[in-house]
Amino acid sequence: MSEMITADLVDLDLSADTKEAAARALAERMVAKGRVTDLDGFLADVAAREAQMPTGLDGGIGIPHCRSAHVTEPTLAFGRSADGVDFGAPDGPADLIFLIAAPAGADDAHLTILSSLARQLMNAEFTTALRSAQDAETATALIRGDARTDPASSADTGSSAADVGTQGDAGAEGTPENTAASPGAASAGAAAGSTPETETAETATTETVTSTAEETATAATSGESEAPASPASPTSPSAARPFRIVAVTSCPTGIAHTYMAAESLENAGRDAGVEVVVETQGSAGFTRLDPAVIAAADGVIFAHDVPVRDKDRFAGKPTVDVGVKAGINRPGALISEVQEKAERGEATGGTAPTPVERSGDTAEGYGTKLRKWLMSGVSYMVPFVAAGGLLIALGFAIGGYQINKAPSVMDHFVWTQTDSWAALLFQIGGVAFGFLIPVLAGYIAYGMADRPGLVPGFVGGAIALTINAGFLGALAAGLIAGGVVMAIQKARIPAALRGIMPVVVIPLISSAIVGFLMFVVIGKPIASAQKAMTDWLNGLTGSNAILLGALLGLMMCFDLGGPVNKVAYTFATAGIAVASPSDSAMKIMAAVMAAGMVPPLAMALATTVRGKLFNRTERENGKAAWVLGASFITEGAIPFAAADPLRVIPSSMVGGAITGGLSMAFGATLRAPHGGIFVVPLIGNPFLYLIAIAAGVCVTTALVVVLKSTRRQAPGGSADDAGGATAEKRQPIAA
Fold first, then answer.
1. Bridge partners, 80 (sequence order)
2. What pTM value is reported for the model?
3. Are 696 and 656 within 8 A, CB to CB?
4. CB 94 within 8 Å of CB 247
5. Which of 569, 566, 641, 637 minimizes the C-alpha distance to 601?
6. Is 251 assigned a catalytic role?
7. Per-position b or e across 478-503, b if 16+ CB within 10 A of its CB
8. Which of 42, 197, 446, 551 is the most exposed place for a label (fewest CB within 10 A)?
9. β pairing state of 244-250 and 299-304
10. Max Cα separation, the chain?
11. What is the pLDDT of residues 242-288, one digit of tens each?
């Protein structure tokens, strides 16, 4: 880690009072060292990562981090705050702040060394030493590992830098043989100050565990062992060895939380007398756990916020499935939970329900889970909507609205004729649109039951398409498919059948059940409801249409790309997901896109006309918001809403409602599901459509400016971070 951090990158008197200010102060040191080329661009990447999940950890630690194209080489900066900075940790502000900057194409060895820092942060002795460091050079030496030279003490702690280089990134990720050959792991160990003696001792320990696991697995498969096929309870008479757990940790960036969760689980396992072997699926790649180690394990812990790769390897064992932060904050509870499941004989028939679209909190209510399951399906469907819809729209733009009656391009295609190319685009788009309903149903089921839910979900979605049940049918099929698979997975399965459950038994039984229900039981009523809703939309005129447009505009601007926004967008795209959409469906699509453009455009305009009301970062974000808003990317307003939600969100909703209502009143139509101003040629009544957008933008801008101008002024304040201008003295907004 010697090249990653120097004394110039350490600030022991960090005076920032917000996480944005702390990141900026540390990033400025990186810029001064030539490690970061674009300060604001890099900070935007840091903020985007922070938006995915707070980077504060228990124990007063903040670890803002990201991969960024603006980073020239892997870099680490450290700041110590006397007052603490809130990074969203459950136990309060962080006084130790590490800013980790990785290039977009960082090599594996450097990322492995970065992961070693994450593991060190789980060591109380390490953090205590940092808090008492008197100068930047001492702190730098501690972080590098230069200060840890006593092998005996390192071995005793179980969380030392030597462990980082060997046990943490070696034994925890796979077999010792594979790890010993890994240059990344070796680099981590060397950088952390490990000694050959310590590495040998740790490797020997890991080899012993692996060897014992292999012997157990061999005995089990050869019939030499009389132990039952189900995992042994830690208290059973036959359990003459410690309880064994295999775990997988992963986070969206794969730099910090992944390895901190691994270290936390391993430490908790040592305290509980349990063998824990972790596979870290991080940015530096990962080494799969030895199949013998998995076979010998009594339980499984998944601590992840992105899908676990090759999850079927762990089928048939008691499983605890949570978010990565749970692995950091409550590892002991997770170990106890998996032991209790083993005692009860619980085992997953396939793969356990996955938190692909959720935080993994087991306390979530069914309403929250339902929303996230539906959003899982929508998130996978939207790319098909965008690709198919734009291709169809281009076909209409080039060949006219009669192009939908063109013969198949397989039978008739002339390279020099424009109509042939228009027909080609239209027909490709139609094929893409044909996947919408099956994909929606399939990935709703996937969000509920992981990969085993895909087959019955797609089958149910295809049936919904066949019987004209539309999007309502897709929702029903996806939820039914996921529920059926989850029910099958809870059943007690004989050991002989566990291997074929994911690929034969679950797809067969679940597809048959879903198909029967969709064809015979609920398909016809859902199709009737879908037709009734379509007829109602087609009959909307006058004030009813305007009110619908206003409602959809409110929804688009309520959470700026969140679930409510996606509900409105999905409702609109459902109407045009046919070769010949109705006039009402195209009006709804136009209103939704117009309203979705309002918030970012309004924030961009507000930062232009009244820049003094915004700080430097917000003004920079305002420049990008012009392009994002024009492209129909509502999320461009999120930084403004996050900083001042009580003023920005209500203002955006008012402007969005006005735009949606005006678009419906003007009769604007849209055949494309995306594109913003770039698809204006495909819009019916384009001039009035742009007037509707401009009206909403002006109203939102005016409201934001007025609300920000009339806020109460605080008795103190500080200079704005922009160009020496003085910022207004502002009272904090009550939550």
1. 96
2. 0.47
3. yes
4. no
5. 637
6. yes
7. bbbbbbbbbebbeeebeeeebeebbe
8. 197
9. parallel
10. 82
11. 899 999 988 765 666 787 788 889 888 988 899 999 998 865 556 78
